[in-house]
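Recap quiz, item 2
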Amino acid sequence: MKAHPPCVILDAPQLAENIGAVARAMANFGLSDLRLVRPRDGWPQPRAWPAASGAESVLEAARVFDTLPHAIADLTLVLATTARPREAGLPVMTPREAAAKLAGLGGEARSGLLFGGERAGLETADVALCQGIITIPVDPARRSLNLGQAVIINAYEWRMTFDDRAPQNFPPPTPSASGEALMGLYEQLEAELDTSGFFHPPEKREAMVRNLRAALGKAGFTDQEVRTLRGVVTALSRGRGKVLAKIAAARAAATGRGDSAED
Amino acid sequence: MKAHPPCVILDAPQLAENIGAVARAMANFGLSDLRLVRPRDGWPQPRAWPAASGAESVLEAARVFDTLPHAIADLTLVLATTARPREAGLPVMTPREAAAKLAGLGGEARSGLLFGGERAGLETADVALCQGIITIPVDPARRSLNLGQAVIINAYEWRMTFDDRAPQNFPPPTPSASGEALMGLYEQLEAELDTSGFFHPPEKREAMVRNLRAALGKAGFTDQEVRTLRGVVTALSRGRGKVLAKIAAARAAATGRGDSAED
């Protein structure tokens, strides 16, 4: 049985736009339970809605709490995201490790991801109410993560625990052409290149053919692409034939004119 | 030898604030090479700077290109992020798979992550210039990712290829107390509980002790925590003693008063 998606708890968030961005990030990865502890400007705040950009349902279902203990009363596992050293003595984990822990919860157990306000972050007393600390492996030179971005990385890792493959709205990849089809292309190409005098000097032909085949083979052409390339070779060869024919015709005409001029 | 960090290419980005947010997301995970192809409002745009929130160096080093081919001219591997089905026939991968591919590039090879503009996304002709498609496993009901958030998930996955452990700015976890120390706590507690008459009926004592020890053992107390808890047990026991002493004293006093009243 799949674990319940974690809720997201924002402790003393400041900007309504950030609350909206958090809602959007949650909806992107299938989270829906947003809890606000003492939002600075009260709730609801109209400015959150444009930032949610379609995730209105998350904002409309958001609940406000006056204390963190009230907000997490029904949760059996709460992990706090913070980049600051703590003396709490709690296990420290990456978002990936945290997601595995959340996903491993069984049955009806409910979990939460706790984030501090934009300026102050989480207080040590708040962290002490949690069962673990999530810390995102940011560049030490640039630790400050936007609230919505801290949320989305955790929401993404949660979703990756059960949906770690590319969405299936892409057409299935077309298989590569068979060795036989490829060989047909190679042989046609090489025959035309023989005609063109491309393989020079002759003793290097074998190595040149080998290198050419290896280079083309790396592309993993599909059957359709092989057909297209055979057409390309044909067109180039015929084009060359046409050019030669034109030159011959022009020469013949010139000769003819010469002849007639001599008449 | 570690691969170069990928550059980030924004094709026809619209909002300067989003370009700033992208710069901030890049800096959070150690990326620094930002390339803008035909930014709608020109470049530089003052409104990008506040959104970058400290990642000014990325914005200041950003380069502007008039076409995508110019922007990717020096790159040997370019992966396009898009949530839309394409007929390009390119390999489709998650950000995690993409990061592994980027990190696997050897030597001086340069790579890039391509993102489309906010409204239109990438054109098929742009995608055809890339070697693969990254698609983020979003909830099918809410596909639309903010530009900065699409960038940060990829930047995060890039960094996780070589920095997938919690930062070491946390104090190392204190080891759990030894079995001997734990047993000292258990035995003290159980002796006090015997005194209190907690284990009732007596034939259940063994199971009650076992359950209590198992419950406390799960916490993995440190030595300091064991000392603190032994103090707690002592305080509760002495407190109980004090209460009993007070009751006895009160009774004695009452008896005394009673005696004297009879005098």
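Chain B touches chain A through 53 residues (CB under 8 Å).
The longest helix of chain B spans residues 223-262.
End of item.
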